[in-house]
Design a protein that fits this description.
Blueprint lengths: L2 E5 L3 H11 L7 E6 L2 H11 L4 E6 L5 H11 L3 E4 L6 H11 L2 E4 L14 H4 L2 H7 L2 E4 L7 H12 L3 E11 L13 H9 L2 E5 L2 E5 L5 E6 L3 E8 L2 H9 L5 E7 L2 H12 L8 E3 L2 E3 L1 H8 L13 E12 L2 E12 H8 L3 H18 L7 E4 L6 H9 L4 E6 L6
Parallel strand pairs: 1-2, 1-4, 2-3, 4-5, 5-6, 6-17, 7-12
Antiparallel strand pairs: 7-15, 8-9, 8-12, 10-11, 11-12, 13-14, 15-16, 16-18
The protein binds NADPH dihydro-nicotinamide-adenine-dinucleotide phosphate.
Protein name: Saccharopine dehydrogenase
Amino acid sequence: MSRVLIIGAGGVAGVVVKKCAMLPEYFSEIHLASRTLSKCEALQKEAGKDRVVGVYQVDADHADEVAALIRKVEPALVINVALPYQDLPIMDACLETGVHYLDTANYEPKDEAKFEYSWQWAYHERFKEKGIMALLGAGFDPGVTNVFTAYAAKHYFDEIHYLDIVDCNGGDHGQAFATNFNPEINIREITQRGKYWENGEWHETAPISVREDLDYPNVGVRASYLLFHEELESLVKHFPTLKRARFWMTFGDQYLTHLRVLENVGMTSIEPVEFQGQKIVPLEFLKAVLPNPGSLAEGYTGMTCIGTYVTGIKDGKEKTIFIFNNCDHAMCNAEVGAQAVSYTTGVPAMIGASMMLQERWMQPGVWNMEQFDPDEFMERLNKYGLPWHVVECESPFKR
Ligand code: NDP
């Protein structure tokens, strides 16, 4: 039985729904639920009613609502592409009903801009006892970057020592300021303090304060800033030989100037303010006035380049490799009507789901992507739209 229930109907969900719809051999039946029913109906129309056979309204902040829906649909797997706030209620519903779970971003409490795996890892024993599996962070970063790291460790090194994950969007959407995925989650992520792992401990940096100018294949040189990103937490745990692990993301000057102004005037705050007798959260209001990331696809040009630099030891000698993917915004739009950031997240989620349903990756408990054998997942990336390359190179980073 390979019936899936997808929760969320935003930019990433659009890609997951359409890619799953193209693959009836993996996904026999697709059901789609989200907070706003009309968005599910629109996606159902695009993907075809013969493939997306049911659409439902659900508030996934409430585990009991999700559990009731799961009982009605009886899926084998729930794909959570709503927001990180919903991770725990959806995991609770899966536990209650005995259904497998997959997501693309780790849990984050709504009233605190802090994300970490502790809350979800705490479900491991309960998932194991129930005989169900949760696959966490099955997007691109986290997700593919974890698998790239596992692939490098398996095939290229005896021991890995230095990891630098680099995420470049070399595209142009023609807007003065927009985020490429949910603005609230995105801005919470990049305005928090930077953090990296070195010599067995975390080191913090001021937000967007450490810069390297890196040369990205098929994009060129881009200013890249050190951020904390969730896959670092699981990768340093699962690859204890790592001496240092960092994450870098590119931002243009125009983007950073807008962000700085918005921060300075208080628009990125998550503290509620009183406005005309109502409490509003400035960042939630900002989201409402920014372009919907799903709407950026039309006319978006250029490419993303996301990859991992890994330095380690092979046969007693140190070497560095770079594993990366380039993804073209216009190609994604032509294929599924999405921009590359939604596409690079949605395709791995679909592949992760297919790996679980086909029992290629299937073990009761709560797992991160790097804990499974990477080879077949890597093959499926090539097959389903995210081809990757490996080059042996000099590390662009100083030590
Ligand atoms: P969007 O904001 O476009 O979509 C989110 C969807 O979730 C919307 O349809 C929204 O409904 C729905 N939703 C929100 N709250 C609820 C709720 N309480 N109950 C039911 N549905 C709800 O976000 P994206 O598609 O850009 O991102 C989706 C996820 O993917 C996020 O968790 C994001 O962090 C993650 N992501 C992961 C990446 C990776 O590489 N790992 C990269 C990019 C994103 P409504 O329309 O009513 O608001």
